[in-house]
Amino acid sequence: MGADPHQGETEPEVTALGRRLASGAEPYLYTAPVLLLIVAIMLVPLGVGLSYAFRDLQLLDPFAGAFIGLDHFRELIADDIFRDALRNTAVWTCASVSLQFVLGLGLALLLNREFPGRRLVQALVFLPWAVPTFLVGLDWQWLFNPVVGPLPHWLFALHITHDANNLLSDPNLALIGPIVAAVWWGIPFFAITCLAALQSIPKDLYEAAAIDGAGLLEQFRSITLPLLAPTIAISILLRTIWVANFADLIIVMTNGGPADATQTVASYIFTVAFRRLDFGYASAVATALLLLLFVYAIAILLLRRAFLRRQA
Amino acid sequence: MRRRPLYWAVHYCLLSLYVLFALFPLYWLLKVALTPNELLYSEGIRLWPSRASLEHFRFVLTHSDFPLFFRNSLIVSTSTAVLATLVSSACGYGLSRFTFRGKSALVALMLITQMFPLVMLVAPMFRLLTPLGLTNSLTGLVIVYTAFNAPFATFLMQSFFDAIPRELEEAAMIDGATRFGAFRRIILPLTLPGIAATSGFVFTAAWSELLFALMLNSSARASTFPVGLLSFVSKFSVDFGQMMAAGVLALIPACLFFLLIQRYLVRGLTAGAVKG
Amino acid sequence: MRAHIWLATAALSACLGSAAHADTTLKLVEVITSPERTETLRAIIKTFEDANPDTNVEIVSLPWGQSFEKFATMVAAGDTPDVVEMPDTWLALYANNNALENLEPYLKSWEHTGELNQRTLQLGRVIHNTAYMLPYGFYLRALYYNRKMFADAGVTAPPKTLDEFLAVSKKVSALPGKYGYCLRGGAGGVNGWLMFGALTTGDDVFFRPDGTSTFTDAGWIRGFNVLADLYKAGLAPKDSINWGYNDVVSGFYSGVCSMIDNDPDALIAIASRMKPDEYGVAPWMKGVGGKSFPTIGYGGWAMFANSKHKDLAWKLIATLDSPAGSLAWNRRIGALPIYTAAAKDPMYADPRYKGWFEELADPNVSPMIMPMDLRAWALFASSIVPRTTQNLLLGKLTAQDMAQQWAQILTKAKQSQK
User: CB 3.0 to 4.6 Å from B88: which of A179, B153, C89, C349, for a disulfide?
Assistant: First the structure.
């Protein structure tokens, strides 16, 4: 770019070259701080953490640390608790994410229309997201406890359960507790992203469809869903990854019990690392989880791309 | 478009269910915080204590280290929000405006960092930060939080920038401004809602973070309020009343902040989706 | 603008990280933290600081629920204190890794060593017969019972034998919404299981001379079945399968269950929430052969081997465990004393402590020390026991199989630790 003649300045050769170099380096300059932070604070520990999976590392034994190759992974394949944890993780993640999504989308649809008091309602309904997760766990644990909470009694009165006992101590039902808490906390996330996506759909599309005689359901199916799908895919992807890695609620509410009935892979990692103090094995479990999530992410991204391509 | 009254009836009915569901647990928190100790168990399932009392709040504010923890949390969260917004704005802008070699690798990298269970990072990170003197310090927490929130904050800022046409800064650059100058003077002011949204999001995330605050800091003077809440769980009893009171107090800034910025989040993400 | 922020945060952290101005700073970590304990600790430490004007003590208080992993992480990364509060269950882990300093030389020249009761030195020396810690007090189990619930159920006196215990439980459980026993099915429940097992066995021997575990003996299995049947028959709350310390204590003082086995430190929580005529403390029941085996635990102070101020650290421990210091501390935490003379202190003359001193004086009562010298014990007690006992209570595992699993693990642990 030459200098503007009206500027009354001319650029010497050196600065012109410098400018071109700078503009070539520009994107890297802008993205450098974040990249640096991520590499230093996350990648390095991540790499070290991954390396633990191949070593025998007991936290308190300064003489441990020998390289043992794939031993941990062999132990992993034979580990019953891990297998059950995998199953629980699938249930936990599927249930939490799908419920959050469906309810979040519903909320977004409701908020998508103008109505008096909308701002207030929107603000109130998004509040759960601001609560720290362990407080969420404690709060819901308290709510499910028949001695101090109303839920078991209400559920009993409504004939949904056949006694007023604590859900969290029944191994068959215990996982429901953390799922409900997670759904309560996570609805705002989906509601916000879906609402944003909904508001970007031009209104005239709906008006045209209405003129053509399409009912609400038809409009939803043929306009809303397809246009929403790319955003939905990314939100679900991100959320699934977070939920799968999310141990806080389970640890606070049930500690993986009773009898490991609510143990997910994430809480199992916590147990192995901080109770057994076996960081090597915990790392192996974490690596397995990482691989699974990676495969899942790729699958979703490929699906999304195929969908977009088909649309175009 | 006018709709039948039945539609609105269902609409409001469903909305009130949502609002009830969202607010009830928070209401319960408040209720427990206001119940005096003797009535905590005997009146456990009443909807409101027969004798509401502010004793827990008084205790938390005067007898515990809570004000210190609160202050620490405020410092850490605000610093993180500011720092994270800064670096993510830069990075988001870079991702929005440029295509460059390694761009998709960077995006993939940021996605991968979300996948690793944080529990596994604690020990290596502790080892990494101790020689640098960043454990037991608020600065260390700020740096760690910034790093963890940067990917999502970048994604947010990127969609805000996507909504602003490139022509704006390109016009400024033709007039002789540097790109950075145009960025600073023209683009940033236009994305104030986006900045508000991102800062609010990061603030909320840093405010409630527990694992690293617990593991990286051990002395009281560097502890944040989530760690402080855990101190109400002693070996002898769980002081639920006090814990919930502390929880309510701690929720106020987070909720206020969130109430203020949540509609910018929606607006900003919408704008991004339009162009993106 | 960014530079200003960095300057600000740097300045802020500098202010926050400013060191003490005294010549030496000792670091002490407490792990069984509560606001009241920290207050008492500060007071005792102040007397130390007054006697040693150039020394400052920095107290680090870890929240009890996470203190195990938090402390382990700190130690693994080299962030070690000079003095640490050492629970009995952690001792094996740290002492066996040579992390703790041998206190014998200091004890030899200490003026108060002769006044300590025999149990103190015995328990301080469980690892390799060397004192790696100095206990500050003892936790002995006894039976707390709810007088009011007993009266409602028509029970006149606390049970003295296992059979009486079961009969009383049944009577109280007949009351609507009430239960006889507060079972600790979750974290920390191992004491209860072993106590019942010992009752039906008639002794507390865990290992045979060759190092194999005795758990597979019929006596122990019978004891495990007693508890399991008690739960299945509804004599303990259904929820109690998950109960930890706080839940059993709160279940007791909120009147859900009428009996609980616990240490004197639970007295603090219970006394502040129940009137003295509503509860009582009785010696733990007797079983086969008229013998009783309540578990005994302890906490104490240990010094880290890499401390740079060993003599000063010892002085700190000595102050904390001096007759005056230990009495003040025990008054706060409710533990039984380490000094023979202290038993005569007015604090222990309180009728509420009667149950424990009765136990200590009874020749048929043998405080049971759990095999905490095994390195694998911490994991066994915190992870394996809750999991297997919960499966037992749910009917997914038989007592036989559970005993088998326990025996396998403990035999291996014992034999590999010669």
Answer: B153
Q: Is residue C364 part of a domain?
A: no
Instruction: Say if residue C284 is exposed, middle or buried (CB neighbours under 10 Å; 0-12, 13-18, 19+).
Output: buried
Task: Please count the CA atoms within 13 angstroms of the CA of C171 that sit on its side-chain side.
Answer: 19
Nearest to C302 by CA among C114, C67, C140, C90: C90
Instruction: Clarify whether residues C312 and C387 are in a common domain.
Output: no
| Residue B112 within a domain | yes
The residues, ordered by sequence, that sit 6+ positions from C359 with a Cβ below 8 Å of its Cβ are C140, C142, C283, C284, C292, C294, C365, C367
Question: What domain range includes position A286?
Answer: 71-311
Q: Domain span at residue C338? A: 22-138+297-354
Among C216, C237, C360, C343, CA closest to C292: C360
Residue C13 lies in a domain: no
CATH of residue A170: 1.10.3720.10
DSSP at C100: B
Q: Are residues C168 and C187 in the same domain?
A: yes
Report the Cα–Cα distance between both ends of chain C, in Å, rounded: 63
Nearest-CA distance A173 → chain B (Å): 20
Report phi then psi at C186, rounded to 5. -105, -135
Do C306 and C272 share a structural domain? no
Q: What's the full length of chain B, in residues?
A: 276
Q: What is the residue type of A58?
A: Q
Residues of A in contact with C248 (CB under 8 A): none
Report the alpha-carbon distance of residue A205 to residue A200 in Å, rounded. Answer: 11
How far, in Å, CA of C175 to CA of C178, rounded?
A: 6
Residue A177 and residue A125 in contact, taking contact as beta carbons nearer than 8 Å: no
The helix or strand, by DSSP H or E, that contains position C297, with its residue range, turns out to be strand C296-303
| Shortest distance, CA A25 to any CA of chain C (angstroms) | 20
User: What span, in angstroms and rounded, lies between the C-alpha atoms of A150 and A19?
Assistant: 68
CA distance to partner chain B, nearest, from residue C23 (Å)? 20
Beta strands in C128-276 (DSSP E): 134-140, 142-146, 179-181, 257-262
What is the CATH number for C214?
A: 3.40.190.10
CA B150 to chain centre: 12
A219 lies within 8 A of chain C by CB: no
Tell me whether residue C367 is in a domain: no
Question: Is residue C316 in a domain?
Answer: yes
Residue B8 lies in a domain: no
**C379:A165 CB<8 A:** no
**C405 plus C290 within the same structural domain:** yes
Distance of CA B149 to CAs A157, B83, B154, C82, C298, Å? Answer: 44, 10, 8, 36, 44
Are the Cβ atoms of C9 and B142 closer than 8 angstroms? yes
Domain count, chain C: 2
Cα end-to-end span (Å), chain A: 37
Contact across the interface for A138 and B243, Cβ inside 8 Å: yes
Residue type, A298: I
Full strand arrangement of the beta sheet holding C279-282: C179-181, C257-262, C142-146, C279-282
The CATH code of the domain that includes B221 is: 1.10.3720.10
Pairing of strands C24-30, C257-262: unpaired
| Per-position pLDDT tens, chain B of length 276 | 456 788 888 889 999 999 999 999 999 989 888 888 777 777 767 788 888 888 888 888 887 778 888 899 999 999 999 999 999 999 988 888 888 888 888 888 888 887 877 878 887 888 788 888 888 889 989 999 999 999 888 888 887 787 778 888 788 888 887 878 888 887 877 787 778 878 888 888 888 888 888 888 877 778 888 888 777 776 556 677 888 888 888 888 888 877 777 777 676 666 554 433
